[in-house]
Amino acid sequence: MPTSRLDKSSGQQEMRKHEVVVRSTTSSLTVRTIVRYGECQKNHAASIGGYAVDGCREFMASSGEEGSTAALTCAACGCHRNFHRRIAED
Hints:
The protein is mainly beta. The protein is 0% helix and 32% strand.
């Protein structure tokens, strides 16, 4: 789960990347993939037949404990983490 920390000296938030462990069922090999969440892709004008995004560039977790539902909400745009583009890095 994403967490953000407030750097006391500069007042900026620091984002940690997510680690997802994927286990293969055919072998005992464990692959670690680092996952981060990019720009928000929520279509705010879908109900009227249009297309409009809010311009949020990267997911920043709201304040909350890691694993809680508050940590799955973006502090910048208020959307759920699932609306942000998932970027997996091997």
